[in-house]
Amino acid sequence: MLSANMKVKKTLSRRNFLAASAAGIFVPTIIPASALGLGGRTAPSNRINVACFGFGTIAHSTVTGFLRDDRVQIIAMADPNRKSGNYGYSGEKEGGRLVGMQIVNEYYAQAEGRTHYRGCRAYEDFRDLLDNEDVDAVNISTPDHWHAVLAVYCANRKKHIYGQKPLAVTVDEGRKMVQAVNRNKVTWQTGSQQRSDSYFREAVEFVRNERIGKLKTIRIGLPGGHSDWNQMSDRQAAEPIPDGLNYDLWEGPAPHRDYRPALLPLNWRHNFDYSGGMITDWGAHHVDIAQWAMDMDESGPIKIDNIKAELPNSSALYNTAPKFHFECTYASGVRMIVTDTSENPQGILFEGEGDKSIFVKRGEIKMNPYELRRERIQDSEIRVYKSTNHVGDFLDGIENRKRTAAPIEASHRSISICHLANIAIRLGRESLEWDPKRERVINDDAANKMLSRPIRGGWKLR
């Protein structure tokens, strides 16, 4: 039978809770209560070990969500960028693996009442991290062009995945992600946090229960333009790669182009090599809620038409559409009209019969007539999945082996609509007919060819 001290040592070794021997940290004579699972914190042997891939703007908020949940221990951080001050402007924050590691270690030091804590380690390459760390789940907060390869790689290693939106950069990548997650039976949560927001859930339930009568039209306003997130948009010529950035690894599966400060960090969202502009960046949120309200998490529209956009020259560094308009028709007859905010206000407007409508955006919901707000959805009516904490819901899914608020199939279907719009815009099409079951464009070989793209550098999607 193990003595109490031996039990403590075994528990600490199981999760490398304090990484004492490896890091040469002073181990106190008095073991913190949390190390024994006392004081309200889960014992180290039962915590979910999380690794974070990519530490930039969105990771600051997502990682905080993981840190605040006592079921979690963040043990490692991987990012090809060592540390960058380029995030420190206009409310954005500093990024890079050393920044993320420091934030995690300082949080745990304070939580444990320590002067120092070094249990979270930093890696340049995510493969080295997974080869050397005892990881249960990963948080993928990389640029969009990395989402698919990373997700498939991690799913094949049986890691549970919290993956940021937009899901992928092509329809084919998204489908392969779905297949990998399902094949390996891992828990998935997309970072589409609006699904854990009470206003959006309320709007969805009101629409599903026909509080506005039969749904007729959905009008979505997405931010447009090319936001200069890193304030270096004038530095578009090739420059030497800065010290501390493994640029080849940062590019990964994306097409190669010389390093340009105008793209890194954050402005890569305006180049089709790495993302799809505002159509995919915000469409991943608002189109997703519209699909949810129509109960179309496993399907999509049958046609996209009335496509209009201002597309920069194909040689431009920022080549995504700053202004756009497209309309989606569903088999039900519902029309979803998606534009930049020069046409529709930012948010989602559901229009029903007569003058009845619901408008929802972050922090706001409006109903017409106003008296609709006084109604309540009853338990006997249609209720949708309820989550109030997006990260917590992901962890619940790991523990209970249940679905999450933003399952991967739903996210794939939503972002596929945005990809189809971009395909039509880039090909100059006025309309596309879509088969949501086969996931093919009808009678358009050029459009179908753009449902996938080559992967650079030997990276794989299987």
How would you characterize this protein structure?
With 462 residues, this protein is of the alpha/beta class. It has two domains: 15-194, NAD(P)-binding Rossmann-like Domain (Rossmann fold); 197-382 and 408-449, Dihydrodipicolinate Reductase, domain 2 (2-Layer Sandwich), CATH 3.30.360.10. Helix content is 31%, strand content 16%. It has 14 helices and 15 strands. It has helices at 4-15, 20-23, 57-67, 97-111, 126-132, 147-156, 171-184, 198-208, 247-251, 277-281, 283-293, 390-400, 408-427, 445-449; strands at residues 48-53, 72-78, 121-123, 137-140, 160-163, 188-190, 217-222, 303-310, 323-329, 335-340, 347-351, 357-361, 364-368, 431-435, 440-441. The strands form two sheets. Strands 13-12-11-7-10-9-8-14-15 form a nine-stranded mixed beta sheet. Helix 7 (171-184) links the parallel strand 5 (160-163) and strand 6 (188-190). Helix 6 packs parallel to helix 7 and helix 7 (171-184) runs antiparallel to helix 13. It starts with a helix and ends in a 13-residue tail after the last helix. The model is unreliable at 1-33 and 35-39 (pLDDT under 50).
